[in-house]
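S2.1 Query sequence (Phosphate import ATP-binding protein PstB 3)
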Amino acid sequence: TTIIEAKDLNLFYSEFHALKGVNLTIPEKAVTAFIGPSGCGKSTLLRTLNRMNDMIVGTRIEGKLIINDTDIYSQEVDVETLRKKVGMVFQQPNPFPKSIYDNVAYGPRLHGIKNKQKLDEIVETSLKSAALWDEVKDHLKRSALSISGGQQQRLCIARALAVNPDILLMDEATSALDPISTLKIEELVQDLRDRYTIVMVTHNMHQAARVSNQTVFFLNGEVVEYDDTEKLFSNP
Ligand code: ADP
Ligand code: ADP
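Output structure tokens follow.
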């Protein structure tokens, strides 16, 4: 089933035409990888999915971007509600300078959950989903900045999952990490794809082949091809 659909989507950074007539469907509960050379619009399209580009002055969007049957650039969409449904993880792990616990509890608290038992439960479930619980369960009050980069990135994934999103966006989420931490995140992405729609930007063709169900090729602001990853990578 399709969860995201771009129809003739164009994005301009002032005069610069960054996305050119993108037509694309993204299936739910699967991993879609965006690949292509640097500067070709992968990150721009990813950020368009949670309206992060709105914050950049002079950005103009034409066309439709439909998520769960709603055109997210139509007037009546509430950006806060959208961001609750569409979580994001960045290239550099960016935990808040707070405890591990408070990082994960941040989103739920923001959305009004105050009950301690409920928050404990969400923190535990989210850290388990992010394959981090066993490593941190005995020191949840430690600073998030005291754990390794790979653990911080999994913490950022837990923080994103804690508000129960449908979609998780990952913008080169492993490119600042060592190979072992990268493999852990790739395994995690594969574990999560039954429950979440994951859209990831990567510059690594092998990573796209390893973890994605669908691969989208970008060039100069255009989507030049997209298909099942197995099909795309099976022909030599
Ligand atoms: P990719 O993720 O494929 O490396 P981006 O989506 O980051 O590419 O960038 C696509 C193009 O848009 C690049 O030419 C980049 O320089 C330009 N661009 C990105 N962000 C901005 C911005 N805020 N203002 C102007 N141009 C931008
Ligand atoms: P302390 O350092 O005081 O022993 P911890 O670091 O063990 O505290 O725990 C920090 C927070 O995490 C506490 O507020 C606690 O309620 C919560 N917590 C501890 N164990 C669990 C658990 N099994 N599930 C969810 N939350 C927990």
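The mean pLDDT is 96. The beta strands are 2-13, 16-27, 31-35, 59-67, 70-71, 86-89, 167-171, 197-201, 214-219, 222-228.
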